[in-house]
Predict the structure.
Amino acid sequence: MRDIFHEELDGISQSLLQMATLVRSAMTDATKALLTPDLALAEKVIEEDSIIDSIQHDLDARTINLIARQQPVASDLRTLVASLRMSADLERMGDLAHHIAKQARMRYPNVAVPSELIPIINEMDKVASRLIDKLSAVMEHRDTVRALEIESDDDEMDRLHRKLIGTLLDDNWAHGIEAAIDMTLLGRYYERCADHAVSIARRVYFSVTGEFAPIAE
Amino acid sequence: MRDIFHEELDGISQSLLQMATLVRSAMTDATKALLTPDLALAEKVIEEDSIIDSIQHDLDARTINLIARQQPVASDLRTLVASLRMSADLERMGDLAHHIAKQARMRYPNVAVPSELIPIINEMDKVASRLIDKLSAVMEHRDTVRALEIESDDDEMDRLHRKLIGTLLDDNWAHGIEAAIDMTLLGRYYERCADHAVSIARRVYFSVTGEFAPIAE
């Protein structure tokens, strides 16, 4: 009985990892679609968001079903509840990639990002990818040390975000209001994506230790 | 045994309603702090966000504890899982009120919102309050009819949001980039707040019927 339970628990963990892999590709592809610009790639990200959504639906149904059938307690129950929350965070990260891709499509054939901001957006994408890679490792190995590292990696995203807003506010900004609005929203999408990665890392920490992760200052 | 269970379930529902009431006040106060401007009120919203957070922590611990002790299945388990998600949505709505209050504080003693946009922000606040009031009724009475109505009420928020962005893009916009960035973020906070209300309403619908609510087009 317990063996089947842990097999199904492993299956749930695998699906979460699969979601993280898809989210990572979606973010990278959305960024590429935005900066190239590449309409077909933007359309692909927009369309494939439904794959992430349906994995989440399926995963949550399996998780609830497993709770109902096996009635786990303590650490196993904590892990399953954490899975439900992590799938919600990953689904939302997929939505943010979808938003970036929609921004790319809306401005196509123009590039939504003025050339001097392309390096920052590229860096934000790299930080997001690094965070998601680390997150996958945290999820796979239930690694509480790296879970705490993700919180400080997020500081790098916040720094880039402040730099982005600083550029918009600079007297030399020559791209007008529309581009400033686009960049404000895009900046927020990357920043929120990193926030969700932090949130998932904190859930792994909690589900392993039963304690909340200390808040980094 | 079952009676204690339903008593505790009622307690959880009451806490969710309490969160909704606090979120509603936080949004209204944050808007007032923003438009007056009122620094003390902004500080109050910022500080009291931790009350909403701690109700969520306590509520989630009780919910998980109840699942572990009573091992509910079917509809009861669905209700408890939905509670976990609804508390997460409400907590996030509290964060958005907190963001609005921080914006108010950052620009104080100036008003972050240019005078011609005050009516739109007032309307967005009213729509948010109406949505949260209706949501409380949906949660209290497990009312699937009104749960579906909330989705179309959200269209009103989207309309206001588009109007707001339209004003920023108008040639007559005379408040520069900084105010445009502020308004883009503020608009997004109200819009996201309404999205979370829709999401909670959909969870009530699902937990009552076992079916996903039809998606409004």
